[in-house]
């Protein structure tokens, strides 16, 4: 697991994600979710590749229900890309590194 991936909860979501000076890709996940585990190594790679340009944060939906409810998380993994506190892109389900990179690159321009 990359040390660049932040673990964020209900208490620090606003400061870590919404008030971030960098765009933040948030992964809503759970321990029991197979597809969530599949994309975890991809997120670690992306955290290294985009270091200094983008943060990657994980929110455990079982432990942080208020944030999951606020963003209407109904199926996981669900990835939301925030820039300046606003959602720029959404991806539901496990996808490959290429597709996530494209989503990130569009938001970084």
UniProtKB/TrEMBL annotation:
Cleavable signal peptide: none
Query: What's the source species for this entry?
Result: Stenotrophomonas terrae
- Residue(s) at site: Deprotonates C-terminal active site Cys: 27
For the site labelled Contributes to redox potential value, the residues are: 34-35
Coiled-coil regions listed in the entry: none
Q: Which family does it belong to?
A: Belongs to the thioredoxin family.
Q: Which UniProt keywords apply?
A: Disulfide bond, Electron transport, Redox-active center, Transport
Q: Highest taxon of the source? A: Bacteria
What is any one of the record's Gene Ontology cellular component terms? cytosol
Q: Supply the name of the protein.
A: Thioredoxin
Task: Choose any GO biological process term that the UniProt entry carries and state it.
Answer: cell redox homeostasis
Record carries keyword Cell membrane: no
> Which residue ranges does the record assign to the Thioredoxin domain?
1-109
| Cross-referenced PANTHER family | GEO12009P1 (PTHR45663)
Q: Disulfide connectivity?
A: 33-36
The residues annotated as the active site are: 33 (nucleophile), 36 (nucleophile)
- State the Gene Ontology terms under molecular function: protein-disulfide reductase activity
